[in-house]
Amino acid sequence: MSTATPPVSETDVLPRSRAEFLQRFTQGDFGSLRVLITLAVIWLIFALANDRFLSAINLTNLALQIAGIGLISVGVVLILLLGEIDLSVGIVSGLCAAIMAVLNVKHGWAPVPALAAAIVAGLAIGTFHGFIHTRFGVPSFVVTLAGLLGWQGVLLWVLGDTGTINLNAPLIVDLAGTFFADAIGWIIAVVLIAVYAAVTFSGRMGRVRAGLDAPPVGALVVRVVAVAVPVLLTVWIVNQDRGLPLALVILVGFVILFDYVTQRTTFGRHIYAVGGNEEAARRAGIDVRRVRTVVFALGSMMAACGGIMLASRLLAVNQSSGGSDLLLLAIAGPVIAGTSLFGGRGRVWSALLGALVIGSISNGMDLLAYSSDTKFMVTGAVLLGAVVVDAATSKRRSRAGRV
Amino acid sequence: MTETTSVLALRGISKGFGAVQALAGVDFEVRPGEVVALVGDNGAGKSTLVKVMSGIYAPDEGEYHFAGRPVKVNGPQDAADLGVATVYQDLALADNLDVVANLFLGHELTNVGPQLDETRMEQRAHELLGTLSTTIPSVRTVVASLSGGQRQQVAIARSLLGEPKVVLLDEPTAALGVPQTRQVLDLVRRLRERGLGVVVITHNLADVFEVADRIFVLYLGRPGGDFAASDVTPEDVVAAITGVHNGNGNAKEATA
Lengths: 403, 256
Hints:
The complex is a heterodimer.
Chain A: H1 18-26, H2 31-49, H3 56-81, H4 89-106, H5 111-135, H6 140-159, E1 165-166, H7 170-177, H8 182-209, H9 217-240, H10 246-264, H11 266-276, H12 278-283, H13 288-314, E2 316-317, H14 326-336, H15 349-367, H16 372-399
Antiparallel strand pairs in A: 1-2
Chain B: E1 8-17, E2 20-30, E3 35-40, H1 46-53, E4 61-66, E5 69-71, H2 76-82, E6 84-87, H3 99-103, H4 118-131, H5 148-160, E7 166-170, H6 178-193, E8 197-201, H7 205-211, E9 214-219, E10 222-228, H8 234-242, H9 252-255
Parallel strand pairs in B: 3-8, 3-9, 6-7, 7-8
Antiparallel strand pairs in B: 1-2, 1-4, 4-5, 9-10
């Protein structure tokens, strides 16, 4: 029992009483709620320490800061769901951004084909990793460790003597530099909420029609409100500054897309099955190799997207693109937000929430003028704390016989 | 024991692995609505025989008949297509998924493109588990939180989704407590009521006498006896398993 992986669909079953809620919360259910509390504590501390932290301009900056790493983390979540790891996502993000920059600036490609080439390069690299991993049974850790080294070399080779390539093509620069007008921001928010409400309630109607027990309408209203409030609040805040950043829309869009893929499609179901029990998946007729290869391809594709976003924000690609702590933070984020390293457990949302936690720490400590030494130590402590709490709560859960 | 009444029949099956002759000249059959217990000591060839039936092993010699016709079975998919479902001892359920997801794993129902039709899957899961009177609390329970008996019920129920004619159960009650064993054996009886041919491999003679209509004994890869469960005592079966009656593999005496 203790080795089994805990449940995946924890948010689907709502608690019936406050006692049940408390019990399940301490047993590690409602994982995203725990991250939100962590985030609230971090924000409270920084807000008390510096009143500029919660200002519109700073929160808009925070959104821009997490967009790139959040996109990379979306791919990392998919790979973690398999119980695998990809150590190359950092450097692949840098390499793909470099490919885009070189094609656009040195070879005069238009922005769109240059962007497409970078994304295709990401897909190809991930497919290659997945192929080696599945065909020769090489652990993903080793394949992507080799990738981490090898693609670093390719990055330097692609950049050539120049070292740094500055970006100025409008479309590429606009990715991180576009802010929507206030009205458009509100429209996006309202459409998002309306779609969410429609999906939630039509799902309930379908269950009622099929004669299945359905959650009470009140609980669904609470759920819709719980989504609507942060969305509206975000738009209200960013509208006081430059407006809703395109970068944030792209990040949230990818999170929603991959949350849909993982939760509502056969392919997503198969990812969880392979991560939970590979043998079971194989016996059920699932093409395990294909699932793994596609996930690695998507992981590197998201790394490419993140790299493009980071380059767009930096307005340049250089030899340290995709290096430094990028990889480690991109993996730490989802883990802080409750995605298991052992596969089969976690949600794509943890990419966004984790990036928010890590980004907030970094942003807040910058505001307070701490140097990177403190920043690293605090981030490390938060990661460790999150994992310890996770381990402790799942232990309580297994004692309660729910594993 | 005419050919026409059996749903699955093996004739003169032999299978060797290098120097080891795992099965030699085994005839085996199961009829609709019949529970056959397949017993034998460790290494008697039970697993090999089941793997021949489920298409994992191709026999060196012998014929595979299904519904009275000789068929060629090349691999597990062929056997599954014929209507032979196998539930292995190590269950092969994904702990992190709920009951519905496990039941439909690899054969998910969809509505628009690859989008999962959770409502329809849940409905069918309710129907299936309801007709089997399983003891699973909710179809949305995560499998990790089920008991061993409940997990076995999920595994067996899953095999029924493909509308099989024959279900092979490999040690379905191994490592289960008394009440859980009872639940699983109740389920085996309901499979019989549905008119399925059921083959149960087991070490537990109490289980054998509780559910089996017929007991087929393997002894060192050869038929060691084929009894109607009502005609024999556990002592007879033990004697056949240990080879006391049939004098080192002379199977004719016991089957006569």
